[in-house]
Write a structure and sequence with these properties.
The structure is a homodimer. Chain A is of the alpha/beta class. The first copy, chain A, contains 13 helices and 17 strands.
Chain lengths: 415, 415
């Protein structure tokens, strides 16, 4: 089965925006054994859009579009797909009711132009969209399937996984393909590869791909087999070897990111956490509290951006800041223990550094960050220098703090 | 003039590689007034590739391909373009000599399969490639131009700038294209469209595209003209009308996001800010401090995730929380004024709500958020219900808080 992906939207053809949906869909399709033959980004123009659907239909078994299902005049995907398929559109009363109910739920009046979101291609099935106003559509046309999905990733992704993948799986029927992702936060991509390549190169099934994500490295192990058990067994035989080689550095094998991994460890141990942040400005707290249920262990956060805040909220002696500077090992340690004591929490974290672009010196360059952990495994402090711009430096600093906490909680030696 | 870009190569359709050429070419084309109508990535398959060229030729004035000009069996771009144009290929003796000379220069033997790199489409001009073995081709076909370029960016980019852009500039006569983006944080996409469509529909130059980004709506106004001044004037004539219709809701026209816009207002007024956050867990502080130089106005943040933290850090009476609940109008207001006073800052913000997925009730559903502003424009409190998952709710809550602050600082009436 060959698939084609159409990303709809003039904005995706400007330098301002780029489409990330197509890549994500490509990965999901590979998992069910469907190959992508072409991927097109097309402007909000009726004739371009219709011709893109016609071309795709002429050469692919599966055509998936994202975007152009909104309520505005620019949203033309429904009309273009209907024209290319030679089918008509009808306004669906059930979809219309759902749309009205959605607007009512958020205390908003439905604008008249939203009504066209209830238009359904003749013979299509409606794909419900619990997270947005634009429903999707799937049309079986002979041996081909055409699927129209909304553009926002937060709406498109769950619709694809819950409603589109089962449709495709029913058609491909055959072999199973599964990927397990091993995540590592404390090594460079080349160091990981250098350590594990001699092992994974001896396997053809699973295949291994190594990818670098912001602040971490991922090993994707993809195996195929006749049953889920057989596939899992193949993956585990390689994964266990990699775990051994990387000695405690793999923090996740089930898709979870560091904030959730660390959160589960705190919850299991019934420990509460407080964080004091300077250069990361609340980003560590925001990441920790992005996890549902984090109120069970996250007590509070201090965004002590000014020196006065460090003194007043964390009880740090002004002389310490004056003598060593706010960006120093002793201040990081005092922030961690100050946060812990001021909050009456079990564990404290402190982060202070220079996120840039201004404020760097020869002694203390942009990217220099001190991280401290207090209340578990004694007191640990780490000095690191992170590359990249302000955003990357701040993200890496929170990754390093979370990894420090994870190692402390598990009793693994500090970095 | 409308252009279409074809990126050729099966590797570009896997998750491992992505095409960066198309975006770069798009930017260059915009500068000479050529708009990209579609962008396709296509596998190394003769029939897919020929149909991609046929489709592009049927709807675009300029077709530019990158990749597939190498010496291997997978390199099929020359053949596919010739077939789509209905022209033959001939082996060019001058190109062949240049190829041989290139190999000799690097003391290498030319393999027989390299010979096909000397194949030229009937009637085409050869684009020399000083940095690689694959020459490019340009074909004038009636009013259309087809350009074939090699895939490696280091070879493609100089060829495009030195040999392709002059060709295109000669055709467009030097018209310029420019886009201005107007951002709005406090209206839905359909409400914005409903309000401004009657105006922008009376303009053909600029054209207007409306799009919805997380927590905001963007209007892209794209105008063309003979000079930069003429283009700017055309954009401004529509933009000023839109500003009027949206009455203070446009927060940015220069690419800046809300944290930077609000930061500049605080800095200009020499006001300091403190934030108290519950459901957003530090995300507002993280966004505010993502702006370089934010230490000039951001004093500190309180991530008062627990009720105890609200009482101890912000001085909120426990009875108030008990009587009204932590998610309530009075607690939001007390957080804003508590943050302001505890920090000795000029302005305080408070956010409390239910980010979910758990914790919602009939009275207080997931997505309910109270926002408060204290110290500028008196005290303002707003109740909102945001759709989506935890991440979207938290992001929208910070957007609403920033917009509330922006309106307060500018003396615009609250929402």
């Amino acid at each position: 089965m060959r698939a084609e992906i159409l990303a709809v939207g003039s904005e995706l053809l400007t330098p301002l925006r780029s489409d990330t949906n197509a890549l994500w869909i490509t990965e999901r399709l590979i998992e069910v054994g469907v190959e992508v033959g072409a991927r097109t980004t097309v402007a909000d123009d009726p004739s371009l859009l219709e011709s893109a659907f016609r071309t795709a239909l002429s050469r692919s078994d599966v055509v998936i579009s994202t975007g152009g299902l909104g309520p505005t005049e620019d949203d033309l995907t429904r009309e273009a797909a209907a024209a290319a398929l030679g089918r008509s559109l009808r306004r669906d009363p059930v979809v219309m009711e759902a749309l009205k109910a959605r607007f009512a739920r958020y205390l908003r009046q439905m604008a008249p132009n939203n009504e066209k979101q209830a238009d359904v291609i003749e013979g299509a099935s409606v794909l419900v969209n619990p997270r947005g106003s634009a429903p999707g559509l799937s049309v079986e046309d002979g041996d081909r399937i055409v699927v129209l999905l909304p553009g926002p990733p937060s709406e498109m992704k769950p619709m694809f996984e819950e409603q589109v993948l089962p449709l495709l799986r029913a058609r491909t029927g055959g072999a199973l393909l599964k990927t397990r992702v091993l995540k590592i936060a404390s090594m460079s991509e080349s160091d990981v590869d250098h350590t594990v390549a001699p092992l994974y190169q001896t396997f053809t099934n699973p295949r291994t791909t190594i990818l670098s994500a912001p602040g971490q490295v991922e090993l994707h192990l993809t195996a195929s087999g006749a049953s889920l058990a057989a596939v899992e067994e193949r993956i585990e035989s390689l994964a266990s070897g990699i775990r051994g080689l990387l000695a405690g550095r793999v923090f996740s094998e089930d898709g979870q990111e560091l904030p959730a991994v660390v959160g589960a460890l705190l919850r299991d141990r019934r420990l509460s956490l407080a964080a004091a942040e300077s250069c990361t400005g609340g980003l560590l707290a925001a990441r920790l509290t992005s996890v549902p249920g984090s109120s069970a262990y996250f007590e509070r956060g201090f965004v002590t951006y000014s020196n006065r805040a460090k003194v007043e909220l964390l009880g740090i002696a002004p002389e310490l800041i004056e003598a060593q500077g706010a960006v120093s090992e002793v201040v990081a340690a005092a922030m961690a223990s100050g946060a812990r004591h001021a909050a009456g929490a079990d564990v404290g974290i402190g982060i202070t550094g220079i996120a840039g672009p201004e404020g760097g010196t020869d002694d203390k360059p942009v990217g220099l960050v001190f991280l401290a952990l207090d209340g578990v495994a004694g007191t640990r402090v780490r000095r690191a220098v992170f590359p990249g711009d302000r955003e990357r430096i701040r993200h890496q600093a929170t990754q390093a703090a979370l990894e420090m906490l994870r190692r402390g909680l598990l009793g693994i030696a500090p970095l």
